[in-house]
Amino acid sequence: MDTVIKNSLDRSMSYQAYRNLVTQLVEENSNTGNEKTEALAEYTKLNDRRMKRWDKTVKVTDETLSRIEAFREPITWLVITESWCGDAAHILPVMNKVAGLNGNIDFKVVLRDENPELMDAFLTNGNKAIPKLIMLDNSTGDVLQTYGPRPSEATNYVSRFKAKHGKLTPEFKEDLQHWYNTNKGQNIINDLTEILCELEPSICQ
């Protein structure tokens, strides 16, 4: 496991490098991942626009900011994603915003299809669901916590719909996009801050 994570870290890129890659793929009408299709290229275009918007507009409250800034343990956030993933386009800019508020958090991005062993080690209910965030202790290399593929409120929303209807419909997926737009990243920020509080309780007392 340590080797799998280390190899993936060696292949990782900064958030800015990932954003540059997505922008380049839009120009080439392409997408990340093993499968290249017109539909996935279109999702990549849409996601590039979403990320541009969130990169500019995500806001953090003063109370949350003080908690994030108080976190003292040097950690790495390694997130698994692909350019075509709709959830990731809403979530990664928020993760980057939070990580950017504390110099002890190093935010790295890896692509799912280029890191199959890593993905297989962090499945969600047996699925290769992304984005998946792995929080690592820099001094020991231990996995401290994982997060994803969706924020807590969206996860509950999806679970309720699946329980009732069996699978997600195109209409539901559209509703989920509206939820992300209305929530403006606040559920993600709260979830991530809560995890930091669990790792270092003194910052939230």
TrEMBL record:
Record protein name field: Thioredoxin family protein
Naturally occurring in which organism (per UniProt): Flavivirga eckloniae
